[in-house]
Amino acid sequence: MNVPTTGRASDQADFVIVGAGPVGLLSAILLGREGWRVTVVERWPSRYPMPRACTIDHEALRILQSAGVMTEHADLFEPSRGERGGYQIRNGDGVLLRAINWNRDAESGWANTNGFYQPDLEEVLEAMAVALPTVELRRGFSAEAISQDDDGVTLTVTRTGEESVAEQLRGSWLIAADGANSVVRGLVGIETVDANFEADWLVVDYQPLADEHWEAFVTQYCDPAQPATAVNSGPGRRRFEFMRRADVSVEELSRPETAWNLMAPWNVTPENAHLERHAVYTFRGRWAETWRAGRVFLAGDAAHLMPPFLGQGLCAGLRDARSLSWRLSMVAAGQAGEAILDSYGSERKAHVRVIIDEAVEVGKIICELDPERAAERDARMRAELTDPESVTVEPPHPRLGEPSITAPGIEGAGASDAGTLSIQAVVEVDGVTGLFDDVVGGDWQLIGIDTDPLAFVDSETRAWFTSIRGTATLLSEKGPVLDHDGAYRAWFEKHNATLLLARPDFYLYGTGTAEDAPRLLESLRSALTNSLEHTEVGALS
To answer: Cα separation of 75 and 69, whole Å?
Structure first.
């Protein structure tokens, strides 16, 4: 068959990835940079040219940093700014009901929340993926069938729109990153659970032709006459979203004149704005019952879907890619047993469900169309504003679900930190200043403040930790690695610890003191090599 291919062709891959959106491409980069042979299959012959996701958080940017994206492409992202934390929820009269602190100082070294233009990011990710000699991107092929055995997965594909000729691709493992209507999820028989939230919204993307000043980065207008959202959607771009009322058909809402009419109250007109895209989407929440079927794993929208009100949909997918890629790479390299793959779904599903639940709750606030119930909501939320701590709330910060690859609970310093997000801040080494991952690096990071993190660790354990690309770093005010702006010291003081052990996806394996380092490292070695309780669906029959 004459097929369009990009990159290195191979008969047998280590990993087959279905879907060439951001989650699939990032997975290919993370695995390809380790030298693994990766085949990416995408049903569409070219990239989708229109915007979709438009917000991304600090953790996702650190994940992109780990893939090499941020070195040259940090300008793709526009940090949140504005009053009241940047994210405001207002009623139909414009009265503030709640604010979410999207402008907070974040743990990962990047702005907490950012706007971006998805086609630009996908272009960068695709170019980086196909530049890797072990990655092959095959566009225009659709998944048709999957079979598994003890050694790998066979994926049958056909040319999109030409089902008469089939081709088989072989890999040791398969990642399904093929979106909300995942074909792979259906082929392996994984069911989804619905969050009981659904609403049609018109999404309108435009480019201002004149300067605009918005008080907030995002404003949710909880107007029962017409719920709406205004959001900065990346450098030089803006987005409005309008909920479909029962008296408006999807067809009517889809018309360009409807979009202009709905934006008119904000003085957005054909004279001062270029309409880039308008489309009606159904906002809903759901998640897959299990994220693994034998050698097949779900990631991104194939595994979960959430209303966009917290801007976390793509962020969750990029977390999936990072969480799964380090596990698969260690298994493929013989550095860990296959049992570590069992905790991917349990960790990620519980984590993402917290965010889905919060997004659904925000959606219920915004989507209220009954004037009386809306008035009751307004009164209740305005009363809450009399509490200074309720004026601006934090975005969700869930910990990993259980069972997880984290340190067993112990008494003492830092016992409750395992499974929460770690820190990245600015350090200085030999006159070079930058973010820790760029200057020091390491897949597994053992960091001590004013104490040698390996002081109590024997030489054999040190050698093993180095073999899995672990780094041990002493941070201090004098060197050799300087805590440049004191962010690490403040973090350790807040967490009542002097040592942390962080995973390749930047979640804490555990914290404590230098005396705890031998216990943490031996616990980690055991977790990577011994069996965990199997919590996911096993191999297909």
So the answer is: 11
Give residue-wise pLDDT tens across range 85-103: 799 999 999 999 988 889 8
Q: What is the DSSP letter of 442?
A: -
Q: Position 161: which residue type?
A: G
Which tokens go with 184? 């792979």
- pLDDT score of 262 more than 70: yes
Distant-in-sequence, close-in-space partners of 222: CB < 8 Å, separation ≥ 6: 89, 90, 91, 92, 97, 365, 366, 368, 374, 377, 378
Pairing of strands 392-393, 444-449: unpaired
Residue 189 and residue 288 in contact, taking contact as beta carbons nearer than 8 Å:
no
Q: Hey, what are 248's tokens? A: 């408006």
Residue 410: strand, helix, or coil = coil
- In this structure, the number of other CB atoms found within 10 A of the CB of residue 179 comes to 20
Q: Are 218 and 232 in contact (CB under 8 A)?
A: yes
Per 3-state DSSP, the chain is made up of helix, strand and coil in percentages (nearest 5) of 30, 30, 40
Report the pLDDT value the prediction gives residue 145, as an integer from 0 to 100.
97
| CA–CA dist 41, 167 (Å, integer) | 12
CB burial string 453-481: b at 16+ within 10 A, e below: bbeebeeebeebbeebbbbbbbbeeeeeb
Q: How confident is the model at residue 394 (pLDDT cuts 50, 70, 90)?
A: confident
In this structure, the number of other CB atoms found within 10 A of the CB of residue 515 comes to 14
Helix (H) or strand (E) holding 352: helix 342-366
**Integer CA distances (angstroms), 296 to 138, 175, 266, 305, 429, in order:** 19, 6, 47, 19, 42
Beta bridge partner(s), residue 475: 449, 481
Per-residue pLDDT of 9-62, as tens digits, reads: 446 899 999 999 999 999 999 999 999 999 999 999 999 999 999 999 999 999
